[in-house]
């Protein structure tokens, strides 16, 4: 693990601060949280890192893993049909599987398509060749390229029976590795069918269900409906329910377990700019002081290490382009973030990246 990341991750909480960010939760109001079981896999703590296309690559996972707190990490979603094509053409397997073969477990790989046989073939490869811990099937992506063009992701919420057929086939191909499903509440607010979907997912043999508290039509607008997520649990007989959506603080993670009927939570977009959020959430669930955010200087050091990891894989030119979006995430919510974004989105070389970071990344005010 990179030394710079480890040093920041191991930093102890600051003492003597009145901020709630470093104050332990009252044990009397803490929810009772037990390890999550996905088939034979024990996920402890029951806090999962969401698969996010274009973001949750090996470099990002290295950073999350160094901080700790995520019980299960996940890759970006992998196009099953593209995987098969690359395999047939004897090309290198997708970049989205970068690091998967050798990195620590547990690790989930998410796949997407609408054909049961294609998904089963890829799931079997991931299970028996890559030996992943979980194969997750994406039924929640709302992006047009996946839905309308490929009739996959959240498009399949229109045909729950098809979802069941896919899961059954992938479960059979991946045995004994558990297969899970990630989905949304429905296609739109007037077509919420998550209860029916949940029962089909369980009946088809999935080992867990993750539900994002928005519909496909919502995309990422508005607020996630945790009250609707909580209505699902009574309809599941044997598999755990994992809730996802708008978890951007440790306090919200504790509240999700306390108020809503879930067995686990999945943190997504908020972690892109705060990969230490899992560590903070895990501490909060244990009733311990929440580790503080890194200082801006430490965050700058972390971002530079992230860039180095990306360049090791993709080279300087492509690494610089890929790092643009990650750098924007790190600056989000900081004073001067807009000016930093304006400059960093145009970087093309390592020298330009370091120059922009030095000149424009926000600095602590003394």
From TrEMBL:
Q: Which domain of life is it from?
A: Bacteria
Reactions that this protein is recorded to catalyse? a 5,6-dihydrouridine in tRNA + NADP(+) = a uridine in tRNA + NADPH + H(+); a 5,6-dihydrouridine in tRNA + NAD(+) = a uridine in tRNA + NADH + H(+)
Coiled-coil ranges from the UniProt annotation: none
Broad enzyme group: oxidoreductase
Is Phosphoprotein found in the keyword set? no
Q: Which family does it belong to?
A: Belongs to the dus family.
What name has this protein been given in UniProt?
tRNA-dihydrouridine synthase
Give the species. Answer: Botrimarina mediterranea
In the UniProt record, what gene is named as encoding this protein? Answer: dus_2
